[in-house]
Structures are given as structure tokens and as C-alpha cells.
Amino acid sequence: LAVFPEILSAQTWGWETATIDQAGEYTSLAVDSAGNLHLSYLNPQEGIKYAFRPAGSSHWFTMVLDHYNGYSNMSTGIALDRQGNPHICYSPSKMKYAYWDGQKWHTEEVAPNSGLIAYTCSIALAPDGTPHLVWYQVDYGGQVNYLHLRHAVRRDGAWLVRTLDFDAETGKWNSMRLDSKGDPHISYSAYHEGLKYASWDGKNWIVQMVDARGQGGSTYRGMGNGLTLDKNGIALISYFDIDQHTLKFARQEGTRWVVQTLDSVSPSNGTGWVAWHSSVVLDAQGFPHVIYGDYGSLKHAYWDGKQWHVQVIASGQEGQYRYSAVVVGPDNTLYVSYQDGADGALKFATGHLQPPTQTADAQRQQPDKKKQ
């Protein structure tokens, strides 16, 4: 069942690549209204880094924000305020928050001494600039396993932190977006259940099951989820189903979800949690694009108005991690950051919509200018 509007001609995308840094992991991308690009990532030799590329330029400016403590189960996330200033979360065993105020960087720890914080963090900013954070709390006070998804919002200079879901092992993979009112929407994994979705209605959290794991399921359904909202606030989620070895896509329809399978992935996609990562964006026509890794290959799945297509952006050796992220520029250009499989360099791919290919029948319907 097609859930997106149709267009007359199929889309194809062409890609160009460039190098940003000698190393890059756990990337996150953002683009402002002027087309300037902002990137957060980890360079293990240098630390947590921020990169900026002005619109119309091919040159990246990079800087170190914080040292790296060597903890590998972490991520970074980036979001922009209305002035285009970057705000970054990163989770090297603790929850860190860095932001640029227009003149200098500020860095702070959120929920200090609460225990081990690791794996995925997400960040989003409300229209008034209020920051929201989501993370996975591994243990409590460094002693007892906790394994829950936590949400924090900054009010009057203080962080208000709450556990969002107390079911076992919730939120190791998470993704967050805010709607036009500034209310958070979060997709997240739940080990014993499946892919879940939580939204704040102004008073309470509303939690829905998107894709239940089902009986006999032995592993995560909902790993590597990526979330976006369309112009009407409808949620769209990309994620992996490990039992079926597939990449899936879910679209919200009221209280129910339409789920599609986009691609089959290798049963040996990787042994580490970072092998399972996807992100989804909408282009100028409202069509979804999903960027994800498949056992060394970096792939692009997209809806062209009639059907889904899958193309390989970069191939690689088996088991290589890509640490990818994607955004859409104001001119409808796709931008993807990822790690090079050969040497670990931080790469950047630019995707352009190609002119439609005319069929022989369409060419025969063209008027003969020589006879006119």
C-alpha cells in the first residue's frame, strides 16, 4: 500500500564524496536555513569534535570540543536553535551537553553522579530554544543495572530529568524530534517488546507500540531506529528487525502504524550495537530517504512517488561500521556523513536528484522541431 503521493516520473539520485577529517565516528548532521552545515563526531585520536561548512563552500572548519575518555559505547547528536547555533549531546559514560551561544562554547554534565550513561543520545530544541535530551541509563549510581530511557528538559537553568519507560532495557536505540509546539516525540527500542513510540501531549506521555516483537523473537525489533515528523506532525520511523534481517519503515496513522519492509540485510550485519543504525529525512516533496549500514555497505533507500528504491552509496568490507547521518539542505540536496571503511576517515557524500530518464515512447511524443 502506497502511503505517499505519486509523481509521474521516477527519481534517481547521484552522489559525490569528499573527506572531512582523518577519523570520524558517531556522526550527527544538521543544516541551517542558509544552507550552512554543522557536524558533531568523535575523532578517537583528538576528542569530541565539531565541524562547520559554510553554504557555497567545500571547505570544512573543525575544532575539538572535549577530550575523549576512551569509552566506546557512546554517540553524539546535534541540533540547531533559531539563530543557527549548534547544541550537541554526547555520552562517553556520562551525559554531556555543549552549545555555542554566538560568542563561545559552553559544556556541562547533565544528571551528574546518576550512574553509567552510554549508547544512544538524542537532542532537539524547541522553537523558544529550550533543549531536550534523551539517553540510555545503563546503571544507577554505578552499582545496580537500570537499563531505561530517560528524558530531560532544561527549565530556568535547571535540568528536569525523568525516566520515560520502566520496562526492561528500553531506549538503547532512540531518536527524538519536536513538533511545531515544541513537544517531544521519541522512537525507541524495547528489548522484551519491540519498537515503541512516546509523545508528550502537553500533560502526559502517550506511549504506543509500533511493531511488537511477537512470540519466539529472540532479539531486538527496533534497533537502530531513526525518527522524523512530516509537516503535519505525522511520525515516520526507520528501524531494523533482527529476527527477519530486514530494514523496516513505519508510518503513523492515528493510533495505528503502517509498516513496510524496505530491504533485506545481511544476517551478519555486525556484532556491535553501532552496526544497527538508520536515519530518515524528508525531501522537498515530502518523500522519505533512509540512510543505513548493511554489513560494510552504506545504503540509501528512498520513495520516488511510486515505489521504494535501494542504492549503495559506498561499499566496504564485511562488518565495517559506518556511523552515518543525513540531512536535507534548503535546495533539496541530500548530505550524508559517514566513516570510510578502508581507512576510518570521516567522509561526506552529497546527493543530487538526477534529471528524469525519458522512455522511448515519451521521446516519440516530443514534437519534431525540424518540421515546425
Distance between the termini: 45 Å
Give, in order, the helices and strands.
Answer: EEEEEEEEEEEEEEEEEEEEEEEEEEEEH
Please outline the major beta sheet.
4 strands, antiparallel
Number of strands: 28
Sum this structure up briefly:
By secondary structure, the chain is mostly beta strands. Helices cover about 0% and strands about 55% of the residues. The strands form 7 sheets. A 4-stranded antiparallel β-sheet has the order 1-28-27-26, with no helix packed on it.
How would you explain this protein's 3D organization?
With 372 residues, the protein is mainly beta. The radius of gyration is 21 Å and the shape is globular. Strands 1-28-27-26 form a four-stranded antiparallel beta sheet, with no helix packed on it. Helix content is 1%, strand content 55%.
Secondary structure topology:
Layout (H helix, E strand, L loop, with lengths): L12 E9 L3 E7 L5 E7 L3 E7 L7 E6 L9 E5 L5 E5 L4 E6 L4 E6 L6 E9 L5 E10 L3 E12 L2 E8 L4 E9 L5 E7 L3 E7 L4 E8 L8 E9 L5 E7 L4 E8 L2 E9 L13 E5 L5 E7 L2 E7 L4 E7 L10 E4 L5 E6 L6 E8 L6 H5 L8
Task: Give structural attributes.
372 residues, mainly beta, four-stranded antiparallel β-sheet, 1 helix, 28 strands, disordered N terminus, disordered C terminus
